[in-house]
Amino acid sequence: MRAHRLTAEWAPRAPLTAQQRQTRKVPAKLAWRHPALREVELPDPAPGPGEVVVRVRACGVCGSDTHCVETDDEGYVLFSGPARLPVILGHEYTGEVVAVGAGVRSVRVGELVAGEGMLSCGECEACRKGMPNQCLHLEMLGFAVDGAFAELVRVPSRSLWSLDGVAVRLGDPDLALELGALVEPIACPFTGIWGPAGGMTPGSHVAVYGCGPIGLGAVLLARLAGAATVAAFDVVPERVALARALGADVAWTPQALAAAGGSPEEVVRELTAGWGADLQVEAAGAALHTFPAIEASLAPQGVVLYLGRTGERAPVGLDALVSGAARVVGSRGHSGGGAFPQVIRLLERGLLDPGPMITWREPLGRVAAALERSRSRADGKILIRA
User: pTM above the 0.85 mark?
Assistant: First the structure.
């Protein structure tokens, strides 16, 4: 099979634990240097017990994929999550089941599926307590386990969810496979909002910082859940326009606001008649820049949901949390909590239309070109299509 494999030089820049040295699975920015992406020809995978082989039909380009090929001044990759190289990139995938291993009961050959990218062990204390995103032995498809920028991918059957219902409703299996590739980035804010953040009620005021696919997913979900207002902010004008198209009442770049003599916190306060945002979603991974505005426009008993990922520390004014009885919570991932099947149900019923998020497509042979394009951050979602 054809696949796109990322390699890099192993050059730890900080002391590692004995386990990290043995497994070479570490926060990528701490050890992997001078990355190179190459198309390779590999043997077709065969499923083991409890495993499935999927012929990949669509796979989204994630910002984390982009960070794996971007480097700092010393040549280290920018991705801050755990990685073990070499690895085939790609984790936001859909496809058709072509082979099943012994004991597989949840999917069948020929079924259209969308797959979770976070592969929990199911046996550690976190997993047994219902916290698969915090699995102590978590493996991440496309970062530590071979992923889906390939013709075929081998995954545990428990990570797959059927898209057949979406294909029936649309009458278009190909479109169902494209929309299914958006389930993962939408499931991330779904998990955060209705998990650690405690949910949101109809009539809430919502502000979203960062209008990449995860932030745009938050805009869609907030609108669907009955938000009274949705404000969105991003430094890229094209993504601001996408946020408006997907339901944001107002969307601005900080640059445009500054030129007009305004600020994000003033926009939120004006939009909410001075109340502030009940739910603030940070999906930009730029807390140094976003938290001052978030703190200045947080409603009483408001919740800040931090979905962005960065290695930086950021100051947070705790007094505002005390006086406002507010909370800051983090959320990682999309597994557990029913996020994948719930989002798929919304697609099946036509309640959610994330299609406008897809702004560019490339064939499997042009993964490198797709990653290069993604560096501009101007697109909503770039898809690799087979």
Answer: yes
